[in-house]
Description:
The chain has 236 residues and is mainly α. Helices cover 19% and strands 5% of the residues.
Amino acid sequence: MWPKTREVERELRQMKRQTRIIMVLVTLVMAVPALGGVVDTKHNFTSPTASPNAYFFGTRQVCVFCHAVHNASTTYSPLWNHETNGATPYTMYTSDTMDMVQSASPHEGSLICLSCHDGTIAVNSLNNVPGPEGAGNYGAPGGSGLDASGRLTSSSHAFVGTDLRDDHPVGILYDANRDPAFHPKTGSSASYPDKLLDQGLYVECNSCHNPHDNTYTNFLTESNASSALCLRCHIQ
Length: 236
């Protein structure tokens, strides 16, 4: 009888350990915030449900509007697949109080966004069109936010245009030494405000926006409750 009793005790101890492990894993999973994804956002141009104002018929590949696995653009990264507008003239933001140096035009972190949002290029104008179509535009446009060619219209909430004077400045070489109203850089890409700077130097669209995740609405990189995101750079 004793051997069987010891065996049962061992099994009970093992079950308790497994239960503790499961409880820890469940706790960790519950502690991780729910993250959004492109499929459920307005950047899913294959879905009239996710993107009712800008979508394309007969298209099922979600990522293709920005990325290509093969034959991607060598000008922009990562694996960029959308027609770009590097030669488009933009009217940059101006202000008498701006002390930091601004470039004559936006950099990659903004241009990849503006390739759709400035309204000069169709959202479905791709460098490498996959699937059976093989060439030309990828799907026919639908929704009130696009014109017949697939370009964003000025009536769309997502329309930025080429006049950037009424938008947060981009192409800014971040340098708190020029303006004490900003937090100084730390030299660490994992810390603020460096974490928000494009290529470690510039303020661009992707400093505040993450096109893959709309958890915080407006595709913000993090919550802006009480202007928290703004205050990562600006000193109140």
